[in-house]
Amino acid sequence: MSGPGIKLEAGLPYALLSIVLVLVLVQPVKAQSGWVRKKGETFSQLSYAGYTSDTYYNLEGEQVETAEFYQHNLYLYSEYGISEKLSVLMNVPLMRAQGFSTTESVWGIGDLRLDAKYGFFQEVLPIAVSLGVEVPWAKPNRLADNEDGFSSINLPTGDGEWNIHAGLAISQSLHPLPAYVNLSGGYNKRTSFEGQNFKDQWTVNTQLGYQFFDKVWMQVQLGVQQSIEKPESLVSFVRGDGSAFTQYGLNLSYLLNDAWGLGLQYYNNADFIIERVNVYESATLGFSVFFQKDFSQKQ
Question: How many CB atoms lie within 10 A of CB 45?
Fold first, then answer.
């Protein structure tokens, strides 16, 4: 066994089935897999990720130096297997704190995302399709006062819109090596807020995972995001309209036992596939603690 639950040649180890998602919970490119949780399997994770940057890429892709911007996120993520082929997923920022070096900090919950994921050919070539909704739970306008005391900037912890997310993922074990590879893509159908129509986005992501010493997993990832068209007017980077970037990252996960584990993540964006637009350069460091259990097994 490569981890509690599933032989590697039969599919992704139970311990890793959702660890692959922790790498990019803050940014839009999400590493998905073709495996789904079986009935009664559950996974929950509490994770932190944050970054500080003064390098911004505007809607023309030009690099601009700004006052230092920072963002810190505390996420709760959960999965549960409804049947042998259907899982439900939830992800919500329990806390998001952000601001500039020249403003006060704003705090708040983020938007809630719920997904259903259905798997095909799980024992041969795991494929999964997903459909989800992002609910605008967060306060869509959060004013942060500038240090001059006379002006403020809007730094919402959510984008104020409903989103519909669709995804497709294919995975393959590299047995007899303790490794796997994922290829996934997604489409974000965006809507509007206060009369502003946001542009839809697409993502593509690939990921390679390798197991060391039975308890350590390493994943490397490369992904891209781009909007289908350029916004018609000046927009805030916080709402992500018109954003584009290439993203790369590294994740290390350590299994403490069959139920608990720890994770450490690093990721950043770059220009080498798709150039950055309406986004901050964001060298992000994160860590997580996760819990997993198969409730279908008799105690």
Answer: 22
CA dihedral (84, 85, 86, 90) positive or negative? positive
> Which residue is listed with tokens 């390679």?
208
Smallest Cα–Cα separation from 290: which of 2, 61, 4, 1?
4
Per-10-residue mean pLDDT of the chain, 299 residues long, equals 34 41 41 90 96 94 95 96 96 96 95 97 94 95 88 92 97 95 96 90 96 94 93 76 94 95 96 94 95 82
**Residues in the chain, how many?**
299
Rounded distance between C-alpha atoms, residue 194 and residue 199, angstroms: 14
pLDDT of residue 50: 96
Query: What DSSP state is assigned to residue 146?
Result: B
Q: Are strands 216-227 and 245-255 parallel, antiparallel or unpaired?
A: antiparallel
Using CA atoms, how far apart are residues 106 and 211, in angstroms rounded to an integer? Answer: 40
Relative to beta strand 41-57, strand 279-280 is antiparallel
Give the list of residues 6+ apart from residue 255 with CB closer than 8 angstroms, or none.
3, 4, 15, 215, 216, 217, 261
Q: Quote the pLDDT of residue 31.
A: 65
Q: Compute the distance between CA of residue 151 and CA of residue 102 in angstroms, rounded to an integer.
A: 11
Q: 47 and 77 in contact (C-beta within 8 Å)?
A: yes
Q: What angle do CA 273, 205, 241 make, to 5 degrees?
A: 70
* Residue entry with tokens 């005391």: 149
Q: How far is CA 179 from CA 31, 128, 207, 216, in A?
A: 16, 19, 11, 12
Question: What pLDDT, on a 0 to 100 scale, did the predictor assign at position 1?
Answer: 26
What single-letter amino acid sits at 285?
L
Phi-psi region of 85 (alpha: psi -120 to 50; beta: other; left: phi over 0): alpha
- Residue 15: which residues within 8 A CB-CB, separation 6 or more? 3, 4, 5, 217, 253, 255, 258, 261, 292
pLDDT at 138: 94
Both tokens of 297, joined, read 């097994």
